[in-house]
Amino acid sequence: MKKNILLIISCLIFLSSCDFLEVKSEDKLPGDEFWIKGNDANAEGFLMSVYFNFRKATMGSGLFLTASGDMRCAPIIPFNGSGQDKKVDFLVANKMNDLRTYSYSPFGETTKWKPFYDVIQSANILINEIDKVPDISEDKRLMFKAEAVFMRNISYFFLVRAFGDVPYYTKAYNSASLPRMDMVTVLLNCLEDLKTGALNSDLLPWTYSSNAKKGVRASRGSVLALMMHINLWLVQFDDKNKNTYYQNVVALGEQLESNGGAYELVEMSRISTVFTGGSNEGLFEIAQNINSSGEVFSKLAVFSNNVAYSHTNEKKTVYYYDSNYMEKIFPYSEIDLRKQYWFDENMYIASTLTPTEIKKFLNVDYYSDSERTSNSGNQMVFRYSDALLLYAEALAALGNDGPAYELLKRVRDRAGASTNSLSGKDLQDAIFWERQRELIGEGHYYYDLVRTGKISNYMYCEHPIRRTEFNVGAWTWPIHRDALSNNTNIQLNLYWE
Predict the structure, then answer these.
(1) Average pLDDT over residues 216-245
(2) pTM
(3) N or C of the chain: less Cβ packing under 10 Å?
Protein backbone atom coordinates (compact mmCIF):
# COMPACT_ATOMS: atom_id res chain seq x y z
CA MET A 1 0.00 0.00 0.00
CA LYS A 2 1.41 3.36 -0.97
CA LYS A 3 1.27 5.96 1.77
CA ASN A 4 2.41 9.41 2.67
CA ILE A 5 4.90 8.16 5.24
CA LEU A 6 5.50 11.49 6.95
CA LEU A 7 1.78 12.03 7.36
CA ILE A 8 1.30 8.58 8.86
CA ILE A 9 4.14 9.12 11.29
CA SER A 10 2.60 12.39 12.44
CA CYS A 11 -0.75 10.62 12.88
CA LEU A 12 0.83 7.87 14.93
CA ILE A 13 2.69 10.34 17.14
CA PHE A 14 -0.61 12.07 17.81
CA LEU A 15 -2.32 8.78 18.62
CA SER A 16 0.49 7.56 20.86
CA SER A 17 -0.11 10.50 23.17
CA CYS A 18 -3.53 9.07 24.02
CA ASP A 19 -3.70 6.55 26.88
CA PHE A 20 -6.05 3.57 26.54
CA LEU A 21 -9.61 4.51 27.54
CA GLU A 22 -8.49 7.85 28.93
CA VAL A 23 -7.73 10.93 26.82
CA LYS A 24 -6.88 14.26 28.42
CA SER A 25 -8.59 17.37 27.10
CA GLU A 26 -5.34 18.95 25.93
CA ASP A 27 -4.66 15.92 23.71
CA LYS A 28 -7.57 16.94 21.53
CA LEU A 29 -6.00 20.21 20.38
CA PRO A 30 -3.51 18.75 17.88
CA GLY A 31 -6.37 16.70 16.41
CA ASP A 32 -8.55 19.78 15.90
CA GLU A 33 -5.74 21.51 14.05
CA PHE A 34 -5.05 18.40 11.96
CA TRP A 35 -8.64 17.99 10.78
CA ILE A 36 -9.73 21.61 10.32
CA LYS A 37 -6.79 22.39 8.06
CA GLY A 38 -6.87 19.01 6.33
CA ASN A 39 -7.97 17.59 3.00
CA ASP A 40 -8.72 14.15 1.55
CA ALA A 41 -5.01 13.24 1.53
CA ASN A 42 -4.75 14.06 5.24
CA ALA A 43 -7.86 12.02 6.03
CA GLU A 44 -6.68 9.04 3.99
CA GLY A 45 -3.25 9.22 5.63
CA PHE A 46 -4.91 9.07 9.04
CA LEU A 47 -7.05 6.14 7.89
CA MET A 48 -3.85 4.35 6.85
CA SER A 49 -2.64 4.69 10.42
CA VAL A 50 -5.73 2.72 11.51
CA TYR A 51 -4.72 -0.12 9.19
CA PHE A 52 -1.12 0.22 10.35
CA ASN A 53 -2.18 -0.22 13.99
CA PHE A 54 -4.20 -3.31 13.06
CA ARG A 55 -1.17 -4.76 11.29
CA LYS A 56 0.90 -4.26 14.45
CA ALA A 57 -1.78 -5.82 16.65
CA THR A 58 -2.15 -8.96 14.55
CA MET A 59 1.22 -9.58 12.90
CA GLY A 60 3.61 -7.98 15.39
CA SER A 61 5.71 -9.43 18.18
CA GLY A 62 2.70 -11.04 19.92
CA LEU A 63 2.26 -13.47 17.00
CA PHE A 64 -1.47 -12.99 17.55
CA LEU A 65 -3.05 -14.75 14.57
CA THR A 66 -0.76 -17.77 14.46
CA ALA A 67 -0.69 -18.28 18.24
CA SER A 68 -4.39 -17.82 18.92
CA GLY A 69 -5.88 -19.22 15.72
CA ASP A 70 -3.55 -21.91 14.40
CA MET A 71 -1.48 -23.30 17.28
CA ARG A 72 -3.75 -23.44 20.30
CA CYS A 73 -5.05 -26.96 21.07
CA ALA A 74 -3.81 -27.94 17.62
CA PRO A 75 -2.53 -31.37 16.48
CA ILE A 76 1.02 -30.07 16.12
CA ILE A 77 4.33 -31.40 17.40
CA PRO A 78 7.41 -29.27 18.10
CA PHE A 79 10.45 -30.08 16.01
CA ASN A 80 13.11 -31.27 18.45
CA GLY A 81 15.96 -28.85 18.78
CA SER A 82 14.01 -25.93 17.35
CA GLY A 83 14.11 -24.04 20.65
CA GLN A 84 10.32 -23.75 20.45
CA ASP A 85 9.41 -27.04 22.14
CA LYS A 86 7.95 -25.70 25.38
CA LYS A 87 6.15 -22.84 23.70
CA VAL A 88 4.43 -25.22 21.31
CA ASP A 89 3.66 -27.74 24.05
CA PHE A 90 2.08 -25.09 26.29
CA LEU A 91 -0.17 -23.79 23.50
CA VAL A 92 -1.20 -27.27 22.42
CA ALA A 93 -2.07 -28.28 26.00
CA ASN A 94 -3.84 -24.97 26.76
CA LYS A 95 -1.35 -24.22 29.54
CA MET A 96 -1.65 -20.49 29.10
CA ASN A 97 -0.16 -19.48 32.45
CA ASP A 98 2.91 -21.60 31.79
CA LEU A 99 3.12 -20.00 28.37
CA ARG A 100 3.00 -16.41 29.55
CA THR A 101 5.58 -16.93 32.30
CA TYR A 102 8.02 -18.94 30.17
CA SER A 103 11.11 -16.78 29.86
CA TYR A 104 11.67 -17.58 26.18
CA SER A 105 8.08 -17.08 25.08
CA PRO A 106 6.92 -14.15 22.92
CA PHE A 107 3.29 -14.90 23.73
CA GLY A 108 3.12 -12.60 26.74
CA GLU A 109 2.53 -9.90 24.13
CA THR A 110 -0.53 -11.81 22.91
CA THR A 111 -2.19 -11.28 26.29
CA LYS A 112 -2.15 -7.50 25.78
CA TRP A 113 -5.34 -6.04 24.39
CA LYS A 114 -4.04 -2.48 24.10
CA PRO A 115 -2.82 -2.89 20.47
CA PHE A 116 -6.41 -3.51 19.37
CA TYR A 117 -7.65 -0.55 21.38
CA ASP A 118 -5.12 1.59 19.53
CA VAL A 119 -6.96 0.58 16.34
CA ILE A 120 -10.36 1.26 17.91
CA GLN A 121 -9.33 4.62 19.30
CA SER A 122 -7.87 5.83 16.01
CA ALA A 123 -10.99 4.62 14.13
CA ASN A 124 -13.23 6.42 16.62
CA ILE A 125 -11.26 9.63 16.15
CA LEU A 126 -11.55 9.50 12.36
CA ILE A 127 -15.30 8.83 12.47
CA ASN A 128 -15.78 11.74 14.87
CA GLU A 129 -13.45 14.26 13.24
CA ILE A 130 -13.58 13.72 9.49
CA ASP A 131 -16.67 15.93 9.12
CA LYS A 132 -14.44 18.89 10.07
CA VAL A 133 -12.22 18.40 7.02
CA PRO A 134 -13.17 21.15 4.56
CA ASP A 135 -11.51 19.93 1.37
CA ILE A 136 -12.86 16.44 0.78
CA SER A 137 -15.63 15.05 -1.40
CA GLU A 138 -18.71 13.69 0.33
CA ASP A 139 -18.22 10.28 -1.29
CA LYS A 140 -14.72 9.97 0.11
CA ARG A 141 -15.81 11.23 3.52
CA LEU A 142 -18.50 8.56 3.78
CA MET A 143 -16.25 5.84 2.38
CA PHE A 144 -13.44 6.60 4.85
CA LYS A 145 -15.98 6.53 7.68
CA ALA A 146 -17.25 3.15 6.52
CA GLU A 147 -13.71 1.77 6.41
CA ALA A 148 -13.09 3.03 9.94
CA VAL A 149 -16.33 1.41 11.12
CA PHE A 150 -15.13 -1.90 9.66
CA MET A 151 -11.72 -1.59 11.32
CA ARG A 152 -13.30 -0.69 14.67
CA ASN A 153 -15.54 -3.73 14.61
CA ILE A 154 -13.07 -6.29 13.33
CA SER A 155 -10.85 -5.19 16.23
CA TYR A 156 -13.67 -5.73 18.72
CA PHE A 157 -14.36 -9.13 17.17
CA PHE A 158 -10.72 -10.16 17.54
CA LEU A 159 -10.73 -8.94 21.15
CA VAL A 160 -13.87 -10.91 22.01
CA ARG A 161 -12.54 -14.11 20.44
CA ALA A 162 -9.39 -13.81 22.54
CA PHE A 163 -10.60 -12.40 25.85
CA GLY A 164 -14.39 -12.78 26.05
CA ASP A 165 -15.97 -9.75 27.75
CA VAL A 166 -14.13 -6.52 26.87
CA PRO A 167 -14.58 -2.78 27.43
CA TYR A 168 -16.62 -1.23 24.62
CA TYR A 169 -16.68 2.39 23.54
CA THR A 170 -17.14 4.41 20.36
CA LYS A 171 -16.39 7.90 21.69
CA ALA A 172 -13.43 9.58 20.06
CA TYR A 173 -12.05 11.02 23.28
CA ASN A 174 -13.15 8.85 26.14
CA SER A 175 -12.19 9.96 29.66
CA ALA A 176 -14.04 7.31 31.69
CA SER A 177 -12.60 4.09 33.09
CA LEU A 178 -14.86 1.46 31.59
CA PRO A 179 -15.61 -2.05 32.91
CA ARG A 180 -15.74 -5.08 30.68
CA MET A 181 -19.02 -5.45 28.79
CA ASP A 182 -20.73 -8.79 28.20
CA MET A 183 -19.33 -10.08 24.92
CA VAL A 184 -22.74 -10.89 23.45
CA THR A 185 -23.74 -7.25 23.90
CA VAL A 186 -20.43 -6.11 22.40
CA LEU A 187 -20.95 -8.24 19.31
CA LEU A 188 -24.59 -7.21 18.89
CA ASN A 189 -23.38 -3.60 19.02
CA CYS A 190 -20.80 -4.47 16.37
CA LEU A 191 -23.43 -5.96 14.06
CA GLU A 192 -25.61 -2.88 14.36
CA ASP A 193 -22.64 -0.58 13.82
CA LEU A 194 -21.59 -2.50 10.70
CA LYS A 195 -25.13 -2.58 9.35
CA THR A 196 -25.76 1.16 9.72
CA GLY A 197 -22.22 2.44 9.23
CA ALA A 198 -20.82 0.23 6.48
CA LEU A 199 -23.47 -1.95 4.81
CA ASN A 200 -26.71 -0.02 4.47
CA SER A 201 -25.70 1.79 1.28
CA ASP A 202 -23.09 1.62 -1.44
CA LEU A 203 -20.44 3.27 0.72
CA LEU A 204 -17.93 0.50 0.09
CA PRO A 205 -17.27 -1.15 -3.28
CA TRP A 206 -17.26 -4.89 -3.86
CA THR A 207 -13.64 -4.61 -4.92
CA TYR A 208 -11.00 -2.13 -6.05
CA SER A 209 -9.31 -1.73 -9.39
CA SER A 210 -6.15 -0.45 -7.72
CA ASN A 211 -3.67 -3.17 -6.74
CA ALA A 212 -2.68 -1.03 -3.77
CA LYS A 213 -6.22 -1.31 -2.34
CA LYS A 214 -7.59 -4.63 -3.54
CA GLY A 215 -8.05 -7.02 -0.65
CA VAL A 216 -6.30 -4.86 1.92
CA ARG A 217 -8.84 -2.03 2.11
CA ALA A 218 -12.26 -2.76 3.55
CA SER A 219 -14.84 -3.69 0.93
CA ARG A 220 -18.46 -4.75 0.95
CA GLY A 221 -17.27 -8.37 0.94
CA SER A 222 -15.07 -7.67 3.97
CA VAL A 223 -18.06 -6.36 5.91
CA LEU A 224 -20.31 -9.28 4.94
CA ALA A 225 -17.66 -11.84 5.91
CA LEU A 226 -17.07 -10.17 9.27
CA MET A 227 -20.79 -10.09 10.02
CA MET A 228 -21.08 -13.77 9.09
CA HIS A 229 -18.28 -14.66 11.49
CA ILE A 230 -19.78 -12.55 14.29
CA ASN A 231 -23.20 -14.17 13.92
CA LEU A 232 -21.76 -17.67 14.04
CA TRP A 233 -19.69 -16.79 17.11
CA LEU A 234 -22.90 -15.63 18.80
CA VAL A 235 -24.49 -19.04 18.13
CA GLN A 236 -22.24 -20.56 20.81
CA PHE A 237 -22.63 -17.85 23.43
CA ASP A 238 -26.27 -16.84 22.91
CA ASP A 239 -27.76 -20.24 22.16
CA LYS A 240 -31.40 -19.25 22.70
CA ASN A 241 -31.20 -17.01 19.62
CA LYS A 242 -29.09 -19.32 17.47
CA ASN A 243 -31.68 -19.74 14.71
CA THR A 244 -31.80 -15.97 14.27
CA TYR A 245 -28.03 -15.89 13.89
CA TYR A 246 -28.08 -18.72 11.37
CA GLN A 247 -30.78 -16.91 9.41
CA ASN A 248 -28.67 -13.74 9.49
CA VAL A 249 -25.73 -15.64 8.01
CA VAL A 250 -27.93 -17.03 5.23
CA ALA A 251 -29.14 -13.51 4.38
CA LEU A 252 -25.56 -12.22 4.41
CA GLY A 253 -24.46 -15.13 2.23
CA GLU A 254 -27.17 -14.29 -0.28
CA GLN A 255 -25.89 -10.72 -0.40
CA LEU A 256 -22.33 -11.92 -0.87
CA GLU A 257 -23.38 -14.06 -3.82
CA SER A 258 -24.77 -10.95 -5.55
CA ASN A 259 -21.25 -9.54 -5.89
CA GLY A 260 -21.46 -9.13 -9.67
CA GLY A 261 -18.42 -11.28 -10.36
CA ALA A 262 -16.10 -9.41 -8.01
CA TYR A 263 -15.18 -12.63 -6.17
CA GLU A 264 -14.31 -16.11 -7.38
CA LEU A 265 -12.70 -19.34 -6.33
CA VAL A 266 -9.35 -19.10 -8.07
CA GLU A 267 -8.43 -22.34 -9.83
CA MET A 268 -5.88 -24.54 -8.07
CA SER A 269 -3.20 -24.02 -10.71
CA ARG A 270 -3.17 -20.34 -9.70
CA ILE A 271 -3.86 -20.79 -5.98
CA SER A 272 -0.49 -19.33 -4.98
CA THR A 273 -1.67 -15.94 -6.26
CA VAL A 274 -4.39 -15.95 -3.60
CA PHE A 275 -1.81 -15.99 -0.81
CA THR A 276 0.43 -13.46 -2.48
CA GLY A 277 -2.51 -11.10 -2.08
CA GLY A 278 -4.93 -8.98 -4.07
CA SER A 279 -6.68 -11.84 -5.88
CA ASN A 280 -10.38 -12.11 -6.66
CA GLU A 281 -10.70 -14.58 -3.78
CA GLY A 282 -9.43 -12.30 -1.02
CA LEU A 283 -12.13 -10.54 1.01
CA PHE A 284 -9.82 -9.00 3.58
CA GLU A 285 -6.06 -9.26 3.96
CA ILE A 286 -3.36 -7.63 6.06
CA ALA A 287 -0.83 -5.95 3.81
CA GLN A 288 2.81 -6.93 3.77
CA ASN A 289 4.84 -5.11 1.15
CA ILE A 290 8.48 -5.95 1.71
CA ASN A 291 9.94 -4.58 -1.49
CA SER A 292 8.22 -1.21 -1.90
CA SER A 293 7.81 -0.01 1.68
CA GLY A 294 9.66 -2.40 3.97
CA GLU A 295 6.52 -3.53 5.80
CA VAL A 296 7.57 -6.83 7.35
CA PHE A 297 5.54 -9.04 9.67
CA SER A 298 7.22 -10.40 12.79
CA LYS A 299 9.01 -13.57 11.65
CA LEU A 300 7.10 -16.20 13.64
CA ALA A 301 3.81 -14.32 13.26
CA VAL A 302 3.86 -15.68 9.70
CA PHE A 303 2.41 -19.20 9.84
CA SER A 304 4.54 -20.34 6.94
CA ASN A 305 7.77 -19.49 8.74
CA ASN A 306 6.82 -22.07 11.37
CA VAL A 307 6.02 -24.93 9.01
CA ALA A 308 8.20 -24.41 5.92
CA TYR A 309 11.92 -24.88 5.39
CA SER A 310 12.50 -24.44 1.65
CA HIS A 311 13.66 -20.89 2.27
CA THR A 312 16.39 -22.02 4.68
CA ASN A 313 19.45 -24.21 4.47
CA GLU A 314 18.16 -26.60 7.13
CA LYS A 315 15.43 -29.20 6.81
CA LYS A 316 13.58 -28.36 10.00
CA THR A 317 10.48 -26.50 11.08
CA VAL A 318 9.28 -24.99 14.35
CA TYR A 319 6.50 -27.59 14.44
CA TYR A 320 4.72 -30.00 12.15
CA TYR A 321 1.26 -31.55 12.00
CA ASP A 322 0.64 -34.99 13.43
CA SER A 323 0.44 -37.52 10.58
CA ASN A 324 -2.77 -39.06 12.00
CA TYR A 325 -4.46 -35.66 11.74
CA MET A 326 -3.23 -35.24 8.18
CA GLU A 327 -4.72 -38.61 7.29
CA LYS A 328 -7.99 -37.58 8.96
CA ILE A 329 -8.46 -34.38 7.00
CA PHE A 330 -6.80 -35.52 3.77
CA PRO A 331 -7.47 -39.28 3.50
CA TYR A 332 -4.63 -41.00 1.70
CA SER A 333 -6.86 -42.74 -0.84
CA GLU A 334 -8.86 -39.65 -1.85
CA ILE A 335 -7.91 -37.34 -4.69
CA ASP A 336 -7.45 -33.75 -3.59
CA LEU A 337 -5.28 -31.25 -5.44
CA ARG A 338 -4.55 -29.39 -2.21
CA LYS A 339 -2.31 -32.30 -1.18
CA GLN A 340 -0.23 -31.71 -4.29
CA TYR A 341 -0.08 -27.92 -4.11
CA TRP A 342 0.13 -27.36 -0.35
CA PHE A 343 2.22 -30.18 1.15
CA ASP A 344 5.40 -32.10 0.54
CA GLU A 345 5.88 -35.85 0.33
CA ASN A 346 6.16 -36.21 4.12
CA MET A 347 2.58 -35.23 4.93
CA TYR A 348 1.64 -38.79 5.97
CA ILE A 349 4.96 -39.81 7.55
CA ALA A 350 5.81 -36.73 9.55
CA SER A 351 8.43 -37.09 12.27
CA THR A 352 11.30 -35.15 13.78
CA LEU A 353 13.47 -36.69 11.06
CA THR A 354 11.06 -35.93 8.23
CA PRO A 355 8.79 -33.02 9.24
CA THR A 356 5.93 -32.20 6.92
CA GLU A 357 6.55 -29.00 5.03
CA ILE A 358 3.44 -26.94 4.34
CA LYS A 359 4.07 -25.11 1.07
CA LYS A 360 0.64 -23.50 0.88
CA PHE A 361 1.95 -19.97 1.47
CA LEU A 362 5.47 -20.35 0.05
CA ASN A 363 6.50 -17.02 -1.46
CA VAL A 364 10.14 -16.56 -0.51
CA ASP A 365 11.72 -13.13 -0.37
CA TYR A 366 14.46 -11.24 1.43
CA TYR A 367 13.61 -8.44 3.84
CA SER A 368 17.19 -7.55 4.78
CA ASP A 369 20.68 -8.42 3.59
CA SER A 370 20.68 -11.70 5.52
CA GLU A 371 17.06 -12.42 6.51
CA ARG A 372 14.37 -13.95 4.37
CA THR A 373 10.78 -15.00 4.86
CA SER A 374 8.94 -18.01 3.47
CA ASN A 375 5.95 -15.80 2.67
CA SER A 376 6.28 -12.18 1.66
CA GLY A 377 2.62 -12.07 0.65
CA ASN A 378 -0.32 -10.66 2.58
CA GLN A 379 -1.86 -12.31 5.63
CA MET A 380 -5.25 -13.72 4.74
CA VAL A 381 -8.06 -12.85 7.18
CA PHE A 382 -11.23 -13.60 5.18
CA ARG A 383 -11.49 -15.13 1.72
CA TYR A 384 -14.32 -16.25 -0.51
CA SER A 385 -14.08 -19.98 0.24
CA ASP A 386 -14.18 -19.21 3.98
CA ALA A 387 -17.40 -17.21 3.55
CA LEU A 388 -18.99 -19.84 1.29
CA LEU A 389 -18.39 -22.50 3.94
CA LEU A 390 -19.88 -20.25 6.64
CA TYR A 391 -22.92 -19.80 4.41
CA ALA A 392 -23.12 -23.58 3.94
CA GLU A 393 -22.79 -24.13 7.70
CA ALA A 394 -25.74 -21.86 8.45
CA LEU A 395 -27.92 -23.42 5.76
CA ALA A 396 -27.17 -26.93 7.03
CA ALA A 397 -27.92 -25.91 10.63
CA LEU A 398 -31.36 -24.70 9.48
CA GLY A 399 -32.02 -27.94 7.60
CA ASN A 400 -31.52 -26.49 4.11
CA ASP A 401 -29.31 -29.39 3.11
CA GLY A 402 -29.56 -29.06 -0.67
CA PRO A 403 -28.15 -25.51 -0.99
CA ALA A 404 -25.60 -26.23 1.77
CA TYR A 405 -24.36 -29.29 -0.09
CA GLU A 406 -23.98 -27.30 -3.33
CA LEU A 407 -21.81 -24.69 -1.57
CA LEU A 408 -19.64 -27.41 -0.06
CA LYS A 409 -19.36 -29.04 -3.47
CA ARG A 410 -18.17 -25.77 -5.06
CA VAL A 411 -15.22 -25.60 -2.69
CA ARG A 412 -14.36 -29.28 -3.12
CA ASP A 413 -14.79 -29.17 -6.90
CA ARG A 414 -12.15 -26.45 -7.07
CA ALA A 415 -9.77 -28.85 -5.29
CA GLY A 416 -10.66 -31.72 -7.64
CA ALA A 417 -12.13 -33.63 -4.71
CA SER A 418 -15.27 -35.75 -4.96
CA THR A 419 -18.31 -35.06 -2.78
CA ASN A 420 -20.84 -37.69 -1.76
CA SER A 421 -24.46 -36.67 -1.35
CA LEU A 422 -24.87 -35.78 2.32
CA SER A 423 -27.54 -34.50 4.69
CA GLY A 424 -28.18 -33.80 8.36
CA LYS A 425 -25.32 -34.25 10.81
CA ASP A 426 -23.12 -35.92 8.18
CA LEU A 427 -23.34 -32.78 6.05
CA GLN A 428 -22.66 -30.51 9.01
CA ASP A 429 -19.59 -32.56 9.91
CA ALA A 430 -18.40 -32.52 6.30
CA ILE A 431 -18.58 -28.72 6.24
CA PHE A 432 -16.62 -28.52 9.50
CA TRP A 433 -13.88 -30.82 8.20
CA GLU A 434 -13.77 -28.94 4.91
CA ARG A 435 -12.96 -25.76 6.82
CA GLN A 436 -10.14 -27.67 8.56
CA ARG A 437 -8.75 -28.65 5.16
CA GLU A 438 -9.34 -25.51 3.17
CA LEU A 439 -8.30 -22.97 5.80
CA ILE A 440 -5.32 -24.70 7.41
CA GLY A 441 -2.81 -22.07 8.51
CA GLU A 442 -5.21 -19.13 8.06
CA GLY A 443 -6.04 -18.55 11.72
CA HIS A 444 -9.43 -20.29 11.91
CA TYR A 445 -8.65 -23.69 13.47
CA TYR A 446 -9.04 -22.85 17.17
CA TYR A 447 -11.85 -20.34 16.71
CA ASP A 448 -13.92 -22.81 14.67
CA LEU A 449 -13.59 -25.32 17.49
CA VAL A 450 -14.64 -22.78 20.12
CA ARG A 451 -17.64 -21.33 18.29
CA THR A 452 -19.03 -24.76 17.36
CA GLY A 453 -18.45 -26.23 20.83
CA LYS A 454 -16.33 -28.97 19.27
CA ILE A 455 -13.37 -27.81 21.34
CA SER A 456 -14.68 -30.11 24.10
CA ASN A 457 -15.13 -33.17 21.89
CA TYR A 458 -12.14 -35.43 21.25
CA MET A 459 -13.77 -36.61 18.00
CA TYR A 460 -13.06 -33.16 16.55
CA CYS A 461 -10.27 -31.75 18.70
CA GLU A 462 -6.96 -33.50 19.31
CA HIS A 463 -6.45 -31.62 22.58
CA PRO A 464 -9.92 -30.84 23.97
CA ILE A 465 -10.87 -28.43 26.76
CA ARG A 466 -13.31 -30.01 29.21
CA ARG A 467 -16.76 -28.44 29.03
CA THR A 468 -16.77 -27.58 32.73
CA GLU A 469 -13.53 -25.65 32.24
CA PHE A 470 -14.72 -24.11 28.98
CA ASN A 471 -17.79 -22.72 30.77
CA VAL A 472 -15.62 -20.82 33.27
CA GLY A 473 -13.30 -19.29 30.71
CA ALA A 474 -10.61 -21.85 29.83
CA TRP A 475 -11.07 -20.97 26.15
CA THR A 476 -9.96 -17.35 26.66
CA TRP A 477 -6.48 -15.87 26.80
CA PRO A 478 -5.21 -14.45 30.10
CA ILE A 479 -5.36 -10.65 30.18
CA HIS A 480 -2.07 -8.88 30.73
CA ARG A 481 -1.91 -7.11 34.06
CA ASP A 482 -1.04 -3.87 32.31
CA ALA A 483 -4.80 -3.54 31.80
CA LEU A 484 -5.21 -2.95 35.55
CA SER A 485 -2.85 0.00 35.61
CA ASN A 486 -4.81 1.79 32.89
CA ASN A 487 -8.32 1.09 34.14
CA THR A 488 -9.35 0.53 37.75
CA ASN A 489 -12.69 -1.03 36.70
CA ILE A 490 -11.12 -3.95 34.89
CA GLN A 491 -11.28 -7.51 36.16
CA LEU A 492 -8.95 -10.10 34.67
CA ASN A 493 -10.04 -13.49 33.32
CA LEU A 494 -10.37 -15.28 36.65
CA TYR A 495 -9.80 -18.77 35.21
CA TRP A 496 -6.17 -17.81 34.61
CA GLU A 497 -5.58 -15.95 37.89
Answers:
(1) 98
(2) 0.93
(3) C
